[in-house]
Each structure stands twice: as structure tokens, then as C-alpha cells.
Amino acid sequence: MKKKINFFSHFIETFYVTPQCNSFLFLNLLPTALVTLGLISTCNAYAQQQMAIAASNIGKTGGKPFSGKDPITFQANKVSYDSKNGRAVWQGDVHIWQNDHILRADKVVYDRTTNIASASGNVTMVEPDGEMLFTQHVQLGENMREGVMDQVYALLADNGKLAANGARRTGGKVYDFSRSVYTACPICMKNPEKPPFWQMRSYKAIRDLENKRIDFSDTFIDFYGVPLFYMPFFSIVDPSEKRQSGFLIPSFNWSSKYIGTYTTIPYYWAINQWSDATFSPLVATDSGPQLSSIYRARFNQGMLRIEEGIADNTVGDRSWHNDAGDLIKGTGDGTQGYLFLKTEWALNDHWRYGADINLATSADYMRDYRISGYGQDTLSSDLYLEGFGEGAYSKVTMQGFQGLNRGVINDSDLPFVLPRYTYSFFGQPDALGGRFSLDTTSFVLYRPTGVSDQRGQLALNWDRPFENNLGQKWLLTLHLDSNVYRASHLNEQPMFLNHYGTKTSGQALPTIALKMNWPFLRDFHIDDSPGTQILEPIVQLIAAPNAKGGRSWLMPNEDSYNYEFTDSTLFALNRFQGTDLLDGGARANVGIHGNWAWNGHQIDFLVGQSYQEHLPINMPKYSGLNHHMSDVVSRLRLSPTQWFSTTGRARIDPYSGSVNFGEGVFNAGFRHFGFNGGYVYQPITPYYYFNNSINSQGLSSEYLTKVSEISYGASTDWDHWHASVFGRRSISRKENVALGGSLGYRNECFSLDTIYFKQYTMINGEENSDTLLFMLTFKTLGTFGING
Fold first, then answer.
1. Which residues have a Cβ under 8 Å from the Cβ of 613 and sit 6 or more positions away?
2. Which of 19, 144, 346, 611 has the smallest set of CB atoms within 10 Å of its CB?
């Protein structure tokens, strides 16, 4: 009857070495030569130190292989030699090592005639990388390359542990284990007989040190000793090897909306020390197969990553209507593919160049096969040359775009940037105490359908800070913005102007600004806890020529479509996002900032307003800048306790008292629970302001639909468990935006994660999509996943 292994009680034993001095001998073992001995006095602590160093290097170092020429060194408490029979006997805390191979035992008998050494009693064998084998008896031959042992226990890299009824070592490279058990989980110190969290029980295991793999036959995976999974054959990369060619864990994905149930079996190829590749064939029930791959390489001066795929997409035509009622036809049938390439190389310490190329045959194909990047509006590609200097930055870029959301963006509407040049310089303090800076972003832009233009842009800035005896902090700014444009097809998108042909125009806007911060500080005490208080009035005066709404009608607008007037842009010289629209005229900005902080508590607020002599035109409705006296902007942050914080922002019309913008977020956390939430409100939906229909029909109904949306979430963790839920709901549209949640378990050697996500909004014709992820991760084995 075969003895059942009780898992790894030996691993909690303590190996004690007496501190007395012992014999230390060198042996040169040759198959036909005599044993030569040399005696040196040493202390036992040396061998103990060697064992400790080896144990600390598990999985980190490699060593010299077994050799028949290198000498074998040993030490023992007692040594005897029978010259008649050719036998040497070492007893009492025996240590033997050759190069990085170490053997420890209570007794070792070496037979010169057969060249076989027998070790017994608390035998420990340490491999070149520090991994350890424990047994009670072992027979070794061929200079420790061959061996047979019983009741084997192995301590591997990454806390991997393997036990077997018996083992055979062949050529110093292959171990055959009989009735083996493997785990990467810790063993209970108080009760070593207790099964670990998970373990693999196999009829046979073969560990190939040369090819760095462990193959298991007739395997059960147990959880707390209860078998739950069975595999007739299972192979893993040896824990000591971080990069090894071979098949990775397969993934099974069920009920995909477009390609049905599918599976992938990745293969990893470790090409050399600096490059590797992963091949992932995919087979689906409702569409043709796909083969994708990823190639990665690192060099002394750069890197290269190529991800690509090709598929026979047979999903079929899936046409749909967008919000405007336009019919969008499917384009993802037939042979489809994608290519994502990223590379970067250093020319020297200051310059580097690279490329980031992202292409796909169709947006439908990316949607069907869930290619990374699907759900974005565009795929962008660029080539660049980039330089860094002391206080300076320079970059030349060539860019192209591919539209993915075909209900909104057509490829012919997207530009090619050929090229774009950016330069920024920030100087050192000059003799007047100020600092000069220079910025430029110039480009040549081409659209197959729409405005094509060239822009030369330059911004000069000089800041001079100073203080006075009243504690006021002043900042004087001299600024100049200038642009030169040459544009054609201004009557087409995205401008739709009533001008034809090619137009040349430009603008220059000098600005002078003076800003004053006057902080009042004081200390106070609350319940014997010290605190600080800051009350800071802020005043800013800006003088500039009237820019008539930011631009001439003949100037293209490429970078200033987005606009938001909040506390973050109250004191900005240009409240537009880019430089195509310039915020001129005379105005005064005022605000008051306050902060109280004590004993871990904090209150921080800012309230401000802008007074404008010249009203900017072409401002979106509800922008907050439609009157000489702007909307009041405010921000409030509260942290009354260490477990709660909240931030709110608002913009209020001073004439009607209506709220034109409001948002708030909060976070609350206790020992095992956390909560968060948010709310955003606007009387319009700003994303639709630049809808084409505005030019002929006025503001669209989509733009005039208010935004009123909440978000919420909660999470908990208890012992090894964690869970969370989250969601977004549009109150104004009376519909959910997204819902989801997760549940998981994690310990030292295992993790389980389940994630669910439901999307209600439409992306490229897809709405009400559900995603379910289920992943099991076993330490040193890999991750098993299901994606539904």
C-alpha cells in the first residue's frame, strides 16, 4: 500500500549546527583515480553561512553545472577511511559542495569503487540557484549528477513547494517525482499536517531543469484538501524561470454579442534575453478565426513593441441608425486586421525619436473582436522627434487619425498633421528679477474633406513677482500672443464660414496683467489642538486690445473648441483652451480664498467673479461670460474627519440666480468600508454645441438638453475578501449610463476576481452591452479566465 504524503511538515524544522571546529577537506573525484585528501582546520559556521546564502538566493542566481573535474569540498565532525574497501565515511553534520551545489546530511558514505555516495539523516541538497531538496536518504553517483531518493521535499522559487514519495535525478538535469504534491501556498506553522489553501496532487511529475518546465500527469487540484478540478496532463514553467517558451493558460469566453463563444490558447516565445513574442490564436462559434501576436524587444538605446492581428470576420452586416437618423452600414466583414506599433530610440542624452502607429481595417472589426482601443473616438498615429534641454523642450510630430465612432466621426473629416512643431523655453531669473518664457505650436494641417490650413504661432511671456511690507504678493505679467494663418475651404467643416478660396490672416494680442494676493494668517487653538487660518483676497487687472470674441472670422479654429469657465480658469490670461481664440479686452478678476486647518481637519474655499469691459462674442450659451459681470464661480473643499472629504464647485448667474454649472464629489472610508459619490449639473449638453445643424438651424435640441447625472460607488474588504459596486445614472434623461460591480478573494498564493459591467450608452451602434469577467490566479501557475 502506497503511503499518502502529508504535506511538508519538514519545512518547519530548524537545522542546528554546533559551533565547534571540524575537518575541512578537498576531494578530486575522478572515475578511475584515487581519492586525494588535504586537511585544513576551520569552523562549522562557514558551512552554515553557505547554506544561508544559498537559501536567500532561491530563484535569483544561476550556478556552474555539475562537473567531473572541479574539486568537491566537504567538512564533517568525524571522518574515517577504509583503504582496503575504498570507502570514506563522514559523520556528524556533513557538508559537501562542488561549485554552487551543496549537500548536507548526518552521515555520508562514499564508495570509490562504484563512485556512489549514500547520504542519510536530515539530508538537504541545495541547487545552484538556491533551491533546496530535503530527504532522509539519497544515493548519488556520477559526481552528484545521478541520484535516487525517497520521501522528497523541495523548496522552489516564489515559495513553491513540492513533495513526493520518491524521486530520481538523471544527468543533474531531470527529476522524476512519484506521487507528488505541489503548492505555492504557505504551510501552517502550528499544524503542518493541515492541507494548504490549494495544492496539486499528481501521479507523476517530471521537472526538467534544462528546459525549465514541470509536467504533471493525472492531476487533481485541491482546495483545503478537497479535490475540485482534474486534469489528465498539466505543464507549467519552472518557478525558477521567469521567461520560458511554451503555451500559456488558455482562456474561455462565452456568449460574446458578435462572435459568440470563443477560446484562445496563447503561446509565449522567449526569443532571447532582450526580446519575446506571444501568439494568440482565437476560435469562435459565430465568426471566423483570428491570429494575433505581440512582439517586444528592449535594446541599449531603444525599444520596439508590435501588436498585430488578422481575422476572417464573418459576423455579417450590422447596420444601425445614429442619433441624427443617419443609416450607418456595417464595414467589418471579410479579411480584417489591425497593427499597433510603438518604438522609441535615443539619439543622445538630449534627443530621442519614435513612432506610435495604430491602424485597423474597420471599427466594426475592433468592436466584434474587442480589440484594445475600441470605444475611443479615434485611433491616432504619430512619428516624432523630441528634445530636452535646460529649461527647454522641442518636439516635431507628424500625426494621422482613424475614426472609430462612425456615428459621429467620418475618416474623411479627420485631419493629417504634416507636421506639428512645439517648442517651449523657460529662462532663469534676469537682472530685473523676472523670468522670460517662450512657447510656440505651429502646424500644417490637411483634411480630405474640410478646412486645410497652416499656422505659425508664438507666445512670449515675462513674469516679475515682488512683495511689499504689507505682506502683499504681486505678480506683473507682460504677454504677447501672435498667430499667422493660411487656410482654404473655410466654408466646409469644422468652420462652415461664408468664405471660399484661400485666405491669409493673422492676429497679435499684447496683454499686461497685475495680480495681487494678500494672505492674512493667524494661529488658533481648538480643544488644545493648534490650527492655522488663511484669508486671502485676490485681485487681478488685465488690459489687452479688444479681440472681438477671440478671433477674426477668417481664422480657423483648431484648438479652442472646448471652453469652461470655473474657479480653475478665473485668473487665466486666456480663458479659452488653446490659442486660436484669444481672450482680449479689459477686465478685472476678484476672488477670496480661505483655508482653515486643525488636528487633521480642513476647510478650503474660493469665490470669485470677473468684470469685463468688452464682452467676448461667439461664447456658448450659459458660458458664464455673456454679461459685463460674469457668473460667480466657487469651490469648497471639506475634510471634517480623516474618513470623509468632499469637494463642490458651482457657477451662478448673478442676474437670475440660476445655477449654470454645479458638481460635487465625496469620499467616505471606514476600516472595512468605503463610499463615494458625485453629481454634475448643467442646463445644456455642451458636447452638442458644435453640431453642424447649429449653423443653419440654431442651437440643436441635443445641446439644449440639460445634464443632471449622479455617480455612486461602495467598496468593502474583510480579511481576504473584497467587493465593490458602482453606477452612473442620468436624472434628466431618466436612464442609467453604466452599472457594475466586483467580488474577489485574495491571499498569499491565490486570487479570485469576478467583475460585471453593463453599458447603457451607444458606442458605434452597440448599446446595452454586458461584460462579465471571471479570473482565477494561482501563484506560479498562471491565470485562468472567462470573459462573457
1. 585, 586, 587, 628
2. 19
- Nearest residue to 74 (alpha-carbon basis) of 125, 23, 134, 19: 23
* Contact call for residues 71 and 27 (beta carbons, < 8 A): yes
Query: Mean pLDDT, 10 residues at a time, over the chain (788 residues)?
Result: 39 33 33 29 43 50 53 84 86 83 88 86 83 88 82 85 89 87 88 88 89 88 90 81 78 78 89 94 92 96 96 81 70 89 96 96 88 86 96 96 80 91 96 96 94 95 95 96 93 84 91 97 84 96 79 75 84 88 91 93 95 77 85 96 94 92 94 94 74 50 84 94 96 91 93 91 74 85 73
CATH fold of the domain at 9-237:
lipopolysaccharide transport protein A fold (2.60.450)
Residue 691 and residue 705 in contact, taking contact as beta carbons nearer than 8 Å: no
Grid coordinates representing 92 are 556528524
3-state SS, 440-491, equals EEEEEEECCCCCEEEEEEEEEEEEEEEECCCCCEEEEEEEEEEEEEEEECCC
The H or E element spanning position 551 is: none
- Site of grid cell 469648497: 636
Cβ atoms 579, 481 nearer than 8 A:
yes
Burial class (CB in 10 A: 0-12, 13-18, 19+), 125: buried
For residue 621, what are the CA distances in angstroms to 154, 176, 628? 73, 78, 15
Cell numbers 505651429: residue = 442
For every residue of 406-449, DSSP letters joined together read TTT--GGGS-EEEEEEEEEEE----TTS-EEEEEEEEEEEE-SS
- Cα–Cα distance, 293 to 308 (Å, whole number): 6
Integer Cα distance of 488 and 215 in angstroms: 68
Q: Are strands 260-264 and 452-467 parallel, antiparallel or unpaired?
A: unpaired
- The Cα-based distances of 770 to 405, 425, 743, 760 in angstroms read 19, 49, 16, 9
Given a contact cutoff of 8 angstroms between Cβ atoms, the answer to whether 152 and 163 are in contact is yes
Residues 6+ apart with CB under 8 A from 617: 548, 549
Q: Where are the domains of the chain?
A: 9-237, 245-401
Question: Can you tell me the distance from the alpha carbon of 523 to that of 533, in angstroms, rounded to the nearest whole number?
Answer: 6
Measure the CA–CA gap between 294 and 372, rounded to whole angstroms: 12
Q: Residue 569: which of 647, 512, 651, 508 has the closest Cα? A: 651
